[in-house]
């Protein structure tokens, strides 16, 4: 069964093109390391909740848009190896220095799918 890394982050709205460009440049590297799919979603209908919500989860400011993304791998083992390769790859390190968002406010985690229809 597949394995999924999920991400939620806040990107300044005026940095949408920069974010998309950086994501497009990173995608081939993720695939090289074993990812089978990478999806980036720009917030369109992200309501404020009464208890919690996506915006609060990443401390999004008024000028920021919430981004929801995921990367699929064939297995957790492939994902773990990919993450090790990414951490030591100079291309990924260079991209990390150009992130058009505050990486400290990004939330992420690995997930095992339990339903895929």
From TrEMBL:
It comes from the Bacteria. This is DUF1428 family protein. It comes from Microvirga mediterraneensis.
């Amino acid at each position: 069964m597949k394995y999924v890394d999920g991400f939620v982050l806040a990107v300044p709205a005026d940095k949408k093109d920069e974010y998309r460009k950086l994501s497009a440049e990173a995608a081939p590297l993720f695939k090289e390391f074993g990812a089978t799919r990478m999806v980036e979603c720009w917030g369109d209908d992200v309501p404020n909740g009464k208890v919690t919500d996506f915006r609060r989860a990443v401390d999004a400011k008024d000028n920021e848009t919430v981004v929801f993304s995921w990367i699929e791998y064939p297995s957790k083992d492939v994902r773990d190896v990919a993450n090790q390769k990414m951490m030591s790859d100079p291309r990924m390190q260079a991209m990390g220095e150009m992130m058009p968002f505050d990486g400290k406010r990004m939330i992420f985690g690995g997930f095992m799918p339990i339903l895929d229809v």
